[in-house]
Amino acid sequence: MTVAFQGEPGAFSELAALRFFGTRTRTLSCTSFEEVFRAVAAGTATAGIVPVENSIFGSIHQNYDLLLRSKLHVIGELKLRIRLNLLGLPGSSFRSITTVLSQPQALGQCERFLRKLKGVHVEAVHDTAGAARIVRESGDLAVAAVASRRAGSLHGLSVLRSDVEDDPRNFTRFLVVSGKPVRTHRDSKTSIVCALRHVPGSLHALLGVLASAGVNLLALESRPMPGKPWEYLFYMDLSGSVAEPRVASALKAAQSLCIFLRVLGSYRRGRTYSR
Fold first, then answer.
1. CA-angle at 224, arms to 223 and 230, nearest 5°
2. Is the pTM value of this prediction over 0.85?
3. Which residues are catalytic?
């Protein structure tokens, strides 16, 4: 099995893939989230994994849009604790660092820690693992990266400070996508996207249909509708699977209230990995 992810080896998305599928899984590094979806659609990868929400920074809107544009199915999820580390070349020291590199969101997640580093220049790069590679290639003892321990290990870097994130409850939710759906019954979730008529109470009516069927709304995200300014799509996570009659009947009833409704996938509720 080959799983596509965005970033370089050692990125948190790769770590999420190895947590979900196992450490023997072959991973495919992609330069963008769109490339992840293309690799799965083309059959270059069996599945792909993308982040959709961080507990501090919120939703990764681009990936919601890619879910809509693609024909792939959501087949799984997991939540991964994001543990950030300050990594430097062997022989460097915490006090010698003058430049810190990392991906913008990672830098934001350890902003308070970085503010305490007087006289240190902070520079954003495309990827946390890429930052670790740049440090290795620079050969500069004064340059450090904020990245995972795995990225540090892959590039022969030392951990100068561990767990530098400002909030230890820093988790990212990842979705797994594939060209084929999975059938699941027990402890499941269903993700849908829909557009509603632009009339008073349309969202209320839809939620009422779900509630009457005993389907719990787990998450709700709105996104602008392409080509229709000030109109919106709603992404929802619901309890249960489309294989369950109550969910299937609720979605059938919901169709009459929607201009458009698509099931993105039903899948087992994902595990939370804190380490």
1. 135
2. yes
3. 172, 174
Q: What is the mean pLDDT of residues 225-233?
A: 89
Helix (H) or strand (E) holding 73: strand 73-81
Instruction: Tell me phi and psi for residue 166, to 5 degrees.
Output: -70, -30
Listed as own residue / partner, the contacts of 56-61 with beta carbons closer than 8 Å and 24 or more positions apart are 56/108, 56/109, 56/167, 56/170, 57/105, 57/108, 57/109, 59/221, 60/33, 61/223
HSE (CB half, 13 Å, CA atoms) of 46? 8
Please state the rounded mean pLDDT for residues 210-239. 94
Is the Cβ–Cβ distance between 267 and 182 less than 8 Å? yes
What does the alpha-carbon distance between residue 161 and residue 126 come to, in Å, rounded to a whole number? 22
Per-residue confidence band for 5, with pLDDT thresholds at 50, 70 and 90: very high
> 154-180, pLDDT tens digit by residue?
999 999 999 999 999 999 999 999 999
**Residue 102 in contact with residue 125, Cβ under 8 Å?**
yes
d(CA 172, CA 20): 14
Instruction: Round to whole Å and give the CA distance between 257 and 254.
Output: 5
Domains of the chain with CATH codes: 2-81+170-178 (3.40.190.10), 85-161 (3.40.190.10), 188-273 (3.30.70.260)
Assess contact for 255 and 261: CB atoms under 8 A: yes
What is the arithmetic mean of pLDDT over 149-156? 96
**Strand pairing class (171-178; 73-81):** antiparallel
Compute the distance between CA of residue 33 and CA of residue 99 in angstroms, rounded to an integer: 28
The pLDDT value recorded for residue 186 is: 81
Q: Take residue 129 and report the two structure tokens written for it.
A: 């693992």
